Amino acid sequence: MFVLTTLVYPVVLALLCTGAALLVDRASGGFLPGMLFPAVGAAALIVVSQLSTYVSAIAPATPYLLVAVAVAGLVLGWGRARALAPAWRTSPAQLALLPIAYALALAPVLLAGRPTFSSYTALADSAVHMLGADFLIAHGQNYAHLDLHNSYGLFLDSYYNTSYPSGADTLLGGSTLLLGLPLIWTFQPFTAFMLATAVGPAWTLARRLGLRPAWAVPAALTVTLPALVYGYELVGSVKEIAALPLILCMGALVGTHRRWLWTGARAAIPFALLTAAGVAALGVAFGTWALIAAIVLAAVALADLAHREQSVGRFLGLLAVGLLVLLVGAWPTWVNISGSLHVAEVIASTSNPGNLHSPLRPTQLLGIWLGGNYEQLPSGVALTLTTVLVAFVFALALLGVWNLVRSRWYALAAWFALMIVLWLVLSNYATTWADAKSLMLTSSAAMLIVWAGIAALRASGSSFVRLMAWPLAIVLLGAVLASDALQYNGSNLAPTARYDELASLNTRFAGRGPTLFTDFDEYAMYELRDLDVGGPDFVYPPPALAGAAGGYGRPVALDRVAPTALAAYPLIITRRDPTAERPPAAYRLLWRGTYYQVWGRRPGSKPALAHLALAGTPRAQCLQIGRLANLAGSRHARLVAALAPGALTIPIPRSRLRRPVGWARAKRGILMRKPGTLEIDFRAPAGGEWELWLKGDVMRELRVAIDGRPLGSIAGQIGGNSLVTNTFAPLPVRLSAGPHTLAITRPGADLAPGDGGAAVLSAIFLARPESPAGPALVSVPAQRGRSLCGRRLQWVELVREQAKRGPVARAQ
């Protein structure tokens, strides 16, 4: 799967884009620079996938339509491809740019050596894009059949039935399902590929600035991968990442306008397709960036008309073809323009900063940020070095502005200037969330201005100044790559095995929902898409179950739900946890894996008359049981109780004297900042087989041993969020009764992806292996309810006599 998603899939995607670009090139007159093919081809495929999913009846054929477009381009444009081949052979660096940029963008996944994605816990929006990509290819824009009683239907309806931009999603879905791959594992490769397509227009613009190929290579990489852009790619901001190469491609068309502007009316096709694809991917807000390039091109055209170098008829022909292609290409947006405008307005005016704790700094525009997270300010020496490097880059940018004016590259200078002006306007009037997006989309243009400064040094009449350009360029490239490396090192990767287990549940229980999902993990909506999932702690909880969690991301407590409200859910999926609450007696354990348990409603069972979560002292619990038994009255009813698990808590030492140096107290336990070993003494109450359960969040490997005997290692175990404690898979161990010493070691740092990521130890439990039937239940007649007093119980239910089914033990 790893090879298919990270290596085969991008090659197929590249072939699709190349074929589509050849078709666009053929249709527009054969003027497109070869380096623009990946970005232009992606734009064409976005447009095709949007049109096909707009017509629901042909939506499932989208993957094959993408292939048809690519094959048509390869056949019709074969001569053009052969003509470009000699140029590619003489400059192999150009061919290497896209795979290099792709490898850098996907570095956390590639070096992890497993299918995963790096946006985990950073931005849950990627879960929505996976869900939408799957749904749109299967059903198109037909939302009438969605069940709005559960999270799955509510998410799709709230996003995609409100004109939410889906251009990137339809291309992701169409290209992934063409190979029959899981969207969850192609999401990051797709995002990395889309970002990598920006190297083409970046190369073209660098060459337009006068840089030779040897200089254009590092220029294209730093323009494509400045720190802020790289950070957005790692957190899965697929809409913005898909829009960036389209914006740069428009800039490249501005920079090369003399090559194509007056070659014929059909020369407007690429620019119009780029605009249509951008509107589909980012929404109507993309129109502001398209308008910038259009204004510059219009000014050039009007200047030519004023000097009578061209005719008005040619200009009108260009305009007519461009508007026609734009109208057809973005038709799904235009027919729902009011909804699209509303979505853009909501995004631009929202007070919700998303994953941003504070506004981004304007200095992040310049591509360097020596911190592990673009959301936070670097500290200590890293902050000082960042400040110095940003000042250095700013000086180069000023030199670049002078070079643009001196060289009379007026069209390109105007495009750069308007890009900066747009960012300044948005930074003054937009909210934190929208301002951050505009800052990211402008960062690449700012880096091009910086390289215009390097180009000025290279063109100097002084040999010393020309010589100094090399070390300055190396410093610039090194600073950008170092910034990216720090973010790579701190990225949290999704737990592959846990999601594979969820996918197996979707196959095993497909069509048997609706399903109540008690863990916090919105990616489960994609993995369990055939089970009509409802998550009480999701952004859109099932209305009837919203009270089961204290709000978004909060732990789910089934005790808060009236028994009748659960009757609509044949299945409940819970995380395995030695301290977890057992579902009501109406459910029996159907399946248990490494991470999850599936509970099914017993055939013919009816909701309990009352459900009581026990709390307080044994005496208080006994009084509660008595009151519940009295509710039975003359009805034939029984009390069914769930026995509390006998897990032994192993306290985590929180004293500074007992924890390793550099391990700090945290709200949820111990924050393992540095290498070290934590030793904890405990007693096993009896000998035999046990399971050691750890809770927390770790990316870097933890090594676990008891009495010097290694039990195993734990790595890449990250939970849904900081409010719900993540439970690791249990480690089996055989112990004798009596004292033992548990050792948990965090080894030294290395260059592995995510090595600087989360490392929190929250709790430790020792428990007996779980029964294959799940936690035991005890049943007694209601009039004998007080016989349950003194037992360690989780909850007690009052049930009708006929509801008693399955392996429920009677108390004698």
Describe the protein.
This protein is α+β, with helices and mostly antiparallel strands. Strands 8, 9, 10, 12, 15 and 17 form a 6-stranded antiparallel β-sheet that branches. The chain has 27 helices and 20 strands. The protein folds into 3 domains: 2-489, no CATH class; 611-646 and 768-812, no CATH class; 654-758, Jelly Rolls. 50% of the residues are buried. Strand 13 and strand 14 form a beta hairpin. The protein starts with a helix and ends with a strand. The longest helix has 27 residues, at 2-28. It is globular.
Query: What structural category characterises the helix and strand content?
Result: alpha+beta
| Radius of gyration, taken over Cα atoms and rounded to an integer in Å | 30 Å
Query: What count of structural domains?
Result: 3
What do the pLDDT scores average to?
A: 89
Quaternary status: single chain
Unreliable spans are 803-807
Main sheet specs: 6 strands, antiparallel
Number of strands: 20
What is the straight-line distance between the termini?
54 Å
As a percent range, the share of strand residues is 5-15%
> Which of globular, elongated, flat, extended, rod-shaped describes the shape?
globular
Count of separate DSSP helical elements? 27
- What percent of residues adopt helix (DSSP H or I)? 40-55%
Observed structural traits:
812 residues, 3 domains, 14% strand, alpha+beta, Jelly Rolls, globular, 5-stranded mixed β-sheet, 6-stranded antiparallel β-sheet
